[in-house]
Design goal:
With about 850 residues, the protein is α+β, with helices and mostly antiparallel strands. It is built from 25 helices and 26 strands. The longest helix is centred in the N-terminal third of the chain and has 35 residues.
């Protein structure tokens, strides 16, 4: 989601401050011997004038940008009279700009949150609502059209309207108040955020449906809205024997660290009598050529969508007797940062003052994670299966009719009008079935996606109720009815209890979830509504007093059945977190932060040992320096470690050669492959980022070394591994300066340097240092608690004990303000990079803005 927005903004920003220059001399070029010297001098004068004119235009653009940035800084002090509140709302900010909203009611609090969001992040909110609603092209023009075309098929505009209509009166009141706060902030702006100047646009008023669009954008960001995983698995299932399919597509991994200590045995390696790679000609699998295809960016995205960590320990393991929670969500990083940290104080219906501190997503009124003094909660992507691909059984009597349990139905066709930059409109036709949109039409076969994100019943704002929950058990029940994408929900409370369950509505299936497309024409596999809270799997106060999740399988057995498998990640992070939690019997907030910053490379230890064995067996094929670096690698993803990067690259070379482009989601490479085509891909013909169980499959093959899985370009597995070592050194040496070609330059920090950029900066390089976060070498990597790449990693870190929020810790890679002229633009970035503990609660107020209700508003009430 955020990467798409960045690319679109880059394209649009290209034309900022420049204008085409017409050549009045036709096609004649300076320096052409056929052009008379007088004309050449005229051309030079014209070129100079054109250059000066261009410089003037750029200068005018820069001045305009400067004035826009200055004028769009929000009012931080004084008072404003606004409509939409019944009593005074105070908005204060500390020395880092961290906001606190104080209100006399929860409804007025929502107004203050909306006001603060719009003051600091209006353009971000606008972009987020336009993703799922399919209206980015109105701002970004033609480059955004593919994104809009993709999202319009889901009919989210209808979903948003129905969600608002179905909402309870209390929820509507809160949405109305939030929306009024956003629009009050817009009305009181001296100038719109500078992005609107670049795009020649003006902000539109906020509407309640826009809050739903932002929530639906989150659905799309962390889930597979088109069911690509099951569709790709379907292609694979049609290409290989069942035993081979089960070998590559498995639930869980050898690294799993389920809370209930369950395990799932791996399927056996298929024998040569079932399937082999060896009937493939060597030329079809790179011809034995293991040279790399070019320099690969380390700009990787881990398996799945939106990785994260969270865990909790019970009050028996803390000094206070209150339970403690830690959470860090891993997402793409940009400027401004994704989340908006805020403290909220209000008076509840009993007259008591309540406080909630945590972070929000601009455009959504309630806290995503936080602590209300009684409970603290955190989220990770569950990777459970919340959608099914249905292959329509077409009615032979009609080309547009398909079979349903109630008889044949006509496919519904609808047309969406997409506005391109406000200048023209493009019409796109879609097909819709009773189970959802047609997401693929292949060889006359239609596939539709039945998904919770299409259903207004599965989208809501019940997360508001977490602000009022008092115990872990209450919070678990709230989580089960929240209308969010299915997420692991971990809670800790002030009474010492901890718990886990799934947040978000889960379908009640007639049969276990399928990994491949299914036929629902008989009605025996269709959904029967959604599970009730009492049907959800949950764990409350487990033995040992510890709970953890990290996007891998959390439970097994009967509890796993309703969850299915939406692409569980290898449990390397989960097992490392579990082990760290087992090392101590008492925990402080600092102990929790240390686990979040843990960059020990346990996942790669066996790869380091394998690499050493290969080097010992083939000592003359590589340099002695490589052997020394690997032997003294340090075992951590530290910025100065060359050995770590060598081991990491060796793993990538092995997996990429085996699987090629199919391995684009192994978490250790870019979307490009080190080789043209992997052996498995060459054999099956199946391409694309298919999330197979690469790590376990590869390691089982390396241990057993079955001949039928050996890439045909090699005679033995030892030959294959030796070639991968050579390819590793060649690749890393090629990155060194031409004058040295020394591996000593290939440290992990040399490539894992932060690139957390504002989307305008690439096309306005003279402003890059002004717009971007500083470039900093960073420790950490995938498959360890400290997930980190150049622009992917911990979008926030939170450690909190409910009732002791003043001891809490919070990090995010940037400040609350999205305005580069604000002193709060980079606030907190250094603490995030260094891991220095910074407080969860805002500090002493240095700015205070009072929002007073207008008299007309009082009378209308």
């Amino acid at each position: 989601m955020f990467a798409k927005l960045r690319r679109l903004f880059l394209h649009q920003a290209t034309n900022f401050g420049s204008a085409p220059v017409q050549n009045s001399l036709g096609t004649a070029r300076d320096g052409d011997p056929q052009v008379p010297s007088k004309k050449r001098r005229s051309w030079r004068r014209l070129a100079i004038r054109a250059g000066l004119a261009l410089l003037l235009l750029i200068s005018v653009g820069a001045v305009g940008l400067h004035l826009s940035l200055r004028a769009s800084l929000p009012q931080l002090d004084g008072s404003l009279a606004v409509r939409g509140i019944t009593d005074t709302v105070e908005l204060t900010r500390d020395f880092n700009g961290n906001p606190t909203v104080e209100a006399q009611s929860y409804v007025d609090l929502a107004f203050g949150v909306g006001f603060a969001h719009a003051q600091d992040r209006l353009f971000q909110m606008d972009a987020l609502r336009r993703v799922s609603s399919g209206r980015l092209s109105e701002l970004f023009g033609e480059p955004a059209f593919p994104v809009d075309r993709h999202h319009r098929k889901h009919r989210f505009q209808q979903v948003a309207k129905q969600v608002v209509e179905r909402a309870s009166d209390e929820t509507k009141q809160l949405l109305n108040s939030y929306t009024a706060g956003v629009n009050a902030a817009i009305a009181n702006m001296q100038a719109a955020p500078f992005e609107y100047l670049v795009l020649n646009a003006v902000p539109e008023p906020w509407q309640n449906e826009d809050c739903v669009y932002v929530l639906l954008t989150m659905f799309c960001d962390v889930q597979d809205e088109d069911g690509a995983r099951e569709r790709n698995f379907g292609k694979l299932h049609e290409s290989v024997p069942e035993e081979v399919f089960q070998f590559f597509v498995r639930t869980g991994s050898s690294w799993d660290a389920a809370i209930d200590e369950s395990s799932i045995p791996p399927p056996p390696i298929p024998p040569a009598s079932v399937w082999t790679l060896r009937d493939q000609n060597a030329a079809d699998s790179n011809g034995g050529n293991v040279e790399t295809t070019g320099k690969i960016s380390p700009d990787w995205v881990p398996e799945g969508k939106g990785a994260s960590n969270n865990w909790a320990v019970s009050g028996e393991l803390t000094e206070t007797g209150h339970a403690m929670l830690a959470s860090d969500m891993h997402l793409r990083l940009g400027v401004p940062c994704i989340w908006y940290r805020i403290a909220m104080n209000w008076v509840d219906d009993s007259g008591a003052t309540r406080r909630l501190v945590g972070f929000t997503l601009p455009g959504i009124p309630h806290a995503v994670e936080g602590s209300n003094g009684s409970i603290a909660w955190g989220l990770t992507n569950s990777q459970c299966d919340s959608g099914d691909i249905v292959e329509l059984k077409m009615d032979e009597r009609s080309a547009d009719s398909y079979v349903t349990p109630d008889g044949p139905r006509q496919l519904e066709r609808f047309t969406e009008q997409i506005s391109i930059g406000g200048s023209r409109t493009r019409s796109i036709d879609y097909e819709w079935s009773i189970w959802g949109p047609v997401v693929e039409n292949r060889d006359g076969r239609r596939f539709v996606h039945r998904w919770t994100g299409h259903d207004p019943e599965a989208v809501n704002f019940d997360a508001f109720d977490l602000a009022h929950a008092n115990t872990a058990e209450e919070a678990l029940l709230v989580a089960n009815r929240m209308g969010v994408p299915p997420l692991n929900f971990v809670v800790a409370d002030s009474q010492g209890s901890i718990g886990w369950t799934l947040a978000g509505l889960l379908p009640r299936r007639a049969a276990p979830a399928s990994q491949i497309p299914v036929d629902w024409s008989e009605g025996n596999l269709a959904w029967d509504g959604y599970m009730r809270p009492e049907e959800y799997p949950r764990i409350l106060n487990p033995n040992g007093g510890r709970i953890w999740t990290a996007n891998s399988r959390v439970v097994g057995g009967e509890m796993l059945v309703p969850l299915g498998d939406g692409g569980y990640l290898p449990g390397a992070r989960a097992s490392q977190i579990r082990d760290r939690l087992s090392e101590k019997e008492r925990f402080t907030e600092a102990d929790m932060l240390a686990i979040q910053l843990d960059d020990e490379a346990r996942f790669l230890q066996r790869w380091q040992q394998l690499l050493l064995r290969v080097l010992d067996a083939k000592p003359d094929t590589t340099s002695s320096a490589l052997r020394e670096f690997v032997d003294n690698w340090g075992g951590h993803a530290s910025v100065d470690s060359v050995g770590y990067r060598i081991v990491r690259e060796f793993r990538v070379q092995v997996i990429d050669y085996l699987f090629g482009l199919t391995a684009s989601h192994v978490g250790l490479g870019s979307s490009k492959s080190r080789v043209e085509q992997g052996a498995f891909q060459a054999k099956t013909g199946v391409t694309g980022g298919m999330p197979l169980a690469f790590e376990d499959v590869t390691w089982e093959l390396l241990k057993a070394q079955p001949e039928n899985f050996l890439p045909p370009a090699f005679q033995t597995w030892d030959d294959f591994l030796g070639a991968m070592v050579v390819a590793t050194e060649n690749y890393l040496s090629s990155e060194a300066p031409t004058s040295t070609k020394s591996l000593s330059n290939a440290s992990w920090g040399a490539v894992n340097t932060s690139a957390i950029d504002h989307p305008m900066s690439a096309n306005l390089p003279f402003l890059s240092s002004f717009l971007n976060m500083p470039k900093t070498p960073l420790p950490g990597d995938d498959f360890m608690p400290r997930v980190q790449s150049i622009n992917y990693g911990s979008s926030q870190r939170m450690v909190v004990t409910p009732g002791y929020e003043e001891q809490g810790i919070y990090h995010q890679p940037g400040g609350p303000s999205g305005n580069p002229y604000s002193p709060f633009y980079r606030a907190g970035f250094e603490d995030w990079t260094s891991g220095e503990a910074s407080p969860l609660l805002p500090g002493k107020a240095v700015h205070r803005l009072t929002l007073n209700p207008k008299e007309a508003n009082r009378l209308s009430d």
